[in-house]
Amino acid sequence: MELIQKFNGKPDIEANDFAKEISSINFSNLIYHNGIAVRNHIAKSKTEEYKKCFKFLFDENINLDYRIEKFQEDVLSIYRSMGEKLHHHHDERTISTFLTFKFPYKYPLYKNSFYSEYCKKLGIKQAKKNNRYIHYISLVNDFIKNYITKDIALLELKNSFLTEDCYSDEQNLIFAQDILYQVLGKEQEEEIENEITQTQNHKMKQFSLNQILYGPPGTGKTYNTINKAIEIANPEFDLTQDRNTIKQEYNRLVENGQIVFTTFHQSMTYEDFIEGIKPETKDNNVIYNIKNGLFKEVVSKSIDNWKKSTSGTKQTKPFDKVFQLLKDEWEENPMIEFPMKREGNDFKILGFSDSSINFLKASGTNNHTLSINTLRDLYYGIREFQNQGVGIYYPSIVDKLNSYDVDFESESINSDIKNFVIVIDEINRGNVSQIFGELITLIEEDKRLGNDEAIEVTLPYSKEKFGVPSNLYIIGTMNTADRSVEALDTALRRRFVFEEMPPKYDLEGLQQDLFGFTASHLLETINKRIEKLLDKDHQIGHAYFINKNETTIIDSFYKNIIPLLQEYFFGDYGKIGLVLGAGFVIDGKQDHENQSKSIFASFEYENDTSGYEERKSYKILGLNDEGFDFGSAIKLLMNK
């Protein structure tokens, strides 16, 4: 009531002023939390565009149903232009709150659960989505007209509680809502629960644009990138299904180009990742063409989708008209030239056929054609430009077509935005500053295309403008035990969210018995010792123990765990013995048949060799060693 009172007596307050005021109003539970967050975000970033939406919404000369529909469309368009992909939450409930605060004498507040329950009590059918608020207004007005205004005693009771500081509510609109609230209030708890669920689901769908999964080997980093990539690229997919079904969906998204997987290594370069000039052999000649790297390729696809889904409508000059102007200009000036991306390779049009354009290359050859149908597809954005062959000529012709003075035509765009994911395994093994180059800045959230601080750069080879859209996600993995390269680049660290992937001891696949001990207890014991001798970055992952039985665990020890320990401790078998125990590591002298005899060859050496002979040496016992028993070795490992 206090908030409505703020605008009481100001029915003609300007829409612009109201748009400014709402950013400071605490709507509490009148609007869902997500709606308030979106409201604040748009009001801050797109103030003027947001004001125009309210000016239209509050124009009482326009039918309310059209105002509601147009308001939602315009807000969605603004929200998408900011690079946002989730729901804008400017639903009927939010719109009703805005209208009520602007015109409290005409519009009631609205909650779908109240409306639904009221229809049930009246025995009437609910209206369709986006028409329910209008239906609810008519029901409330009928309630006031048929019941409240006819009950004089009730109105006198109401007026007896109102003071001079209260909102007068002469139309009894607030009073009617109070009554309905009391009658339908039992639905409030259910709605709050639904709101909490929606908020939780909303948070679950908030993915970091740049994230790195890090941890020791065998903790499921690469395994989990599959789930994360699917969850981002196809949020509707059920990840509780069996692993084969999940992998099939992952492969489908890879085939569609929504997920790209790569592994960084010491030889990876900017030219491999972004773009570079690569030699090719054609007609026994070596030619050099600009080739897109895998990152630029996936960015191009994500930008195409992002542009289509955020534009709402696309304005384009009709191809047939501009193409005719091109032909007319050529007839007047047959020497018209079109530049290629590289200097010295301009080409001239020789003539037009029904299906193609014939042209003369700078080299003098004239056996090349440009398909008119392909040109039309490129002009309308149906096909992608090529960076090699005949297709390299098209951009300059498309630019020429767009330069002609022809009226635009609007084309409705109904494409849904898709998320794209690039997975970079072992991201810390590459020279990040060299691979990303100047693009390291472009992947920051506020520098993505569509945001206020968006940045584009000119690429060094193609000279194209290049930016990264907000529907492209980067997932990296980092093995913390890998010390073969320098620490991860500081510039990259500042731009990524890091999610630790430690060994998990409570997994269902680690609760089986192995020689009298649970697999989880065995794994945890080994890791505690490694952490004392080295650090937690060199622990053993649960993948080497999960679902292992007393047979398969042997392979895991000898093919994975022991080799890892040998690498960790640089052949210091004494420390390996402190981890695995005397059942796996023994004094190497025990293998010498004759300890009284010197182990060295007969040779005159000026220094005393006795110290070397007494030095400890160790041996990892193998499965074929006499007397070795794996189960007994495990018991010694566990100090039993």
Give the overall form. Answer: flat
Instruction: Please count the beta strands (DSSP E, at least 2 residues each).
Output: 19
Enumerate the spans where pLDDT stays under 50 for 5 or more consecutive residues: 1-12, 186-205
Largest sheet: 5 strands, parallel
What percentage of residues falls in helices of 4 or more residues? 40-55%
- State the strand order across the main sheet: 2-11-14-1-15
Helices and strands: which structural class?
Answer: alpha/beta
Distance between the termini: 73 Å
Sheet-strand content, in percent, reads 5-15%
Counting H and I runs of at least 4 residues, what is the number of helices? 25
Radius of gyration: 35 Å
Arithmetic mean pLDDT: 79
What does this structure look like?
With 640 residues, the chain is an alpha/beta fold. It is 43% helix and 13% strand. The chain is built from 25 helices and 19 strands. Strands 2-11-14-1-15 form a five-stranded parallel β-sheet. Strands 6-7-8-9 form a four-stranded antiparallel β-sheet. Strand 8 and strand 9 (368-371) form a beta hairpin. Helix 21 (519-533) runs antiparallel to helix 23 (573-580). The termini are far apart.
Give the structure's gist in a few sentences.
By secondary structure, the protein is an alpha/beta fold.
Based on the model shown, name its key terms.
640 residues, five-stranded parallel β-sheet, four-stranded antiparallel β-sheet, 25 helices, 43% helix
Summarize the SSE layout with pairings.
Blueprint: H1 2-6, H2 15-22, H3 33-45, H4 47-57, H5 64-81, H6 92-102, H7 112-122, H8 132-148, H9 152-161, H10 173-184, H11 188-204, E1 210-215, H12 221-233, H13 243-255, E2 259-263, H14 270-273, E3 275-282, E4 285-292, H15 294-311, E5 313-316, H16 319-332, E6 337-338, E7 347-352, E8 356-360, E9 368-371, H17 372-379, H18 394-403, E10 409-412, E11 420-425, H19 432-436, E12 457-458, E13 465-466, E14 472-479, H20 490-493, E15 497-500, E16 513-514, E17 517-518, H21 519-533, H22 552-568, H23 573-580, E18 585-587, H24 610-614, E19 618-620, H25 630-637
Parallel strand pairs: 1-14, 1-15, 2-11, 11-14
Antiparallel strand pairs: 3-4, 5-10, 6-7, 7-8, 8-9, 12-13, 16-17, 18-19
